[in-house]
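Below is how a single chain appears once it has passed through the pipeline. First comes the sequence as given, then the structure the pipeline wrote out for it. We keep one example in the README because the format questions we get most often are answered faster by looking than by reading.
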Amino acid sequence: MQKSTLQPGQKVKFKLKDVHLPSTQDVLNRMTPDTELKGCITLLSDQGTSKSAYAVVEVRGILMPIIVPAGSIKTAAEDAIATRN
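Resulting structure:
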């Protein structure tokens, strides 16, 4: 995924194994039975020369923000393309 295409407010999804912070166990402990790892970007970070290296994502059903490497995130548009192929 091109990191420059991510924007705050964008709906995205990612895999549990790609969560940078908090720990996987903390995320699992805060999940509800209805939790999907889909959420909305609230903040993008810049790290050195790598723009938007991490995204802070709010996921419904998890009571804390999740930090995910921007390269691990899929947008709704990318998901639609993958589904068609």
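The mean pLDDT is 78.

See the next section for the split statistics.
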